[in-house]
Amino acid sequence: DAGVIQSPRHEVTEMGQEVTLRCKPISGHDYLFWYRQTMMRGLELLIYFNNNVPIDDSGMPEDRFSAKMPNASFSTLKIQPSEPRDSAVYFCASSKTGTGKEKLFFGSGTQLSVL
Amino acid sequence: QKEVEQNSGPLSVPEGAIASLNCTYSDRVSQSFFWYRQYSGKSPELIMSIYSNGDKEDGRFTAQLNKASQYVSLLIRDSQPSDSATYLCAVKPANMLTFGGGTRLMVKP
Fold first, then answer.
1. Helix (H, G, I), strand (E, B) or coil at B51
2. How far apart are the first and last CA of chain A?
3. Which residues on chain B are in Cβ contact (under 8 Å) with A101?
4. Rounded CA separation A44/A26 (Å)
5. C-alpha B80, offset from chain centre
6. Which of A32, A38, A65, A93 is the most exposed place for a label (fewest CB within 10 A)?
7. Angle at the Cα of B25 from the Cα atoms of B20 and B76, rounded to 5 degrees
8. Distance from CA of A104 to the nearest CA of B (A)
9. Which of A31, A101, A109 lies closest to B43 in CB terms?
10. Is the pLDDT of residue B41 over 80?
11. Which pairs from A66-69 meet CB under 8 Å and 24+ separation?
12. Interatomic CA distance for residues A69 and A28, integer angstroms
């Protein structure tokens, strides 16, 4: 299996620009998670989907952030407009419902720098 | 109080020693517990999971869980320089996995 695939690996943009991060989960996984990691705050859950439906977006920092999952094999996280404080590594992860002991598999992450 | 607490470290141990990493959590309904290893610049990878009180061994790794004390630990025997990484404790009370801040482990040759 190819694992969770994220793109781009690195993104450098200027404040005010729109940023779109992409994720392809592992085939057959029905949960998809977006996390953000910074030195100060560690790994934070932003939003997660179950069967393409957003379940909990309480971790989304503000309205500038939005996430979609149009089908089982693709999700996007969009920041518009971007700000320097959004600079972080953004991870996508997926898991499969089974015995209730689901394990999370992470993508390689997107390093976002907002100048 | 954070939901999952870990000492940020760094924890420095000599090669061949036992490294002991600790984690406490606040939500008593948590049923699933995980340890992830994250090398610098890489993504977290699952190394251990534990669901019942007691010890679970996998090679050089042993996870220990005490639900009454809300405490999870990870022991790494015969530590190697390649074990140097940040170890993240994760707890799952419902559908959301909550991570601790991680403990940085340094194994010195």
1. coil
2. 36
3. 32, 49, 51
4. 21
5. 16
6. A38
7. 15
8. 7
9. A109
10. yes
11. A67/A34, A69/A32
12. 15
